[in-house]
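Sequence, please.
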């Protein structure tokens, strides 16, 4: 049984990115720039933003943090995004979600220049993802695929069940898994809260990707022996972090599994760094656009 160590793999990615940047900085006169916009005082979001700032410092990306009060208006945020879109030192713009309910996140995300949308949430990037074209893939699904690639666990020809249909994880991950490639080319079943007999769907799967946001929702009786289980969930229960899967039970059944914490969470931030460096290279003319298909 393989524990898919996202923390270690993410560190390797950050190291690779850091090694690639000095020559680019010398050639183009600046480092990549990432603007992170945090509105309000959500504790989890504050932790995520600090982790992203640390990752930027390690890689060599210039971080532009905008920590705004919960009372910030829609008009003020729209003006900030327009400013960042026009700033040549900013290669990526990240609006940390969730934002206060009084604000319209859909409008704000659509305002971000798709070429700076390193979170991969802009409708243009999502549409290009669906067609297998160049653009930015959402960081969490991209991190899932990259982790499988680095452990050489192909999904090609396998049955993959994705539990959860969010626009951030479930939907884009199902698209990526269905595209051509060694770490794609799966037969994908996208399940959700209204799927009849979800447990039976999971028992048929060679790969289970859990992203439903319910602690220990996937139990050992839902996993067939030898399946690969990727837990995207991060739930805080009585001060402890746990995933959507019952890790202690499933670990004796699966052939490979991600831990929580230390699995997909670090990979998400690593892919944000990768997308930011990618955006920088495109803006300075160092490379052609990234393809969203199989990384192999």
């Amino acid at each position: 049984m393989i524990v898919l160590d996202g923390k270690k793999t993410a560190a390797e990615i950050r190291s690779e990115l850091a090694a690639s940047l000095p020559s680019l900085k010398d050639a183009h006169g600046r480092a990549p720039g990432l603007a992170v916009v945090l509105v309000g005082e959500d504790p989890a979001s504050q932790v995520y933003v600090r982790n992203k700032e640390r990752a930027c410092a390690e890689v060599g990306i210039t971080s532009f943090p905008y920590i705004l009060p919960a009372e910030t208006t829609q008009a003020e945020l729209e003006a900030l995004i327009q400013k960042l879109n026009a700033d040549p030192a900013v290669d990526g713009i990240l609006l940390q979600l969730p934002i206060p309910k009084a604000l319209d996140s859909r409008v704000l995300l659509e305002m971000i220049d798709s070429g700076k949308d390193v979170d991969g949430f802009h409708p243009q990037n999502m549409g290009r993802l669906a067609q297998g074209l160049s653009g930015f893939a959402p960081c969490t699904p991209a991190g899932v695929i990259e982790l499988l690639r680095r452990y050489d666990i192909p999904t090609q020809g396998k049955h993959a069940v994705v539990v959860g249909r969010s626009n951030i994880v479930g939907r884009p991950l199902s698209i990526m898994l269905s595209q051509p490639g060694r770490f794609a080319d799966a037969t994908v079943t996208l399940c959700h809260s209204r799927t009849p007999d979800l447990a039976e769907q999971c028992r048929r799967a060679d790969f289970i990707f859990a992203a439903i946001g319910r602690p220990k929702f996937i139990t050992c009786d839902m996993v067939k022996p030898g399946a690969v289980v990727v837990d995207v969930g991060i739930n805080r229960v009585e001060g402890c972090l746990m995933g959507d899967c019952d890790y202690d039970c499933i670990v004796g059944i699966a052939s490979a599994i991600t831990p929580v914490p230390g699995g997909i969470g670090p990979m998400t931030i690593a892919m944000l760094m990768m997308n930011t460096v990618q955006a920088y290279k495109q803006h300075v003319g160092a490379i052609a656009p990234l393809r969203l298909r199989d990384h192999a």
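The radius of gyration is 19 Å.
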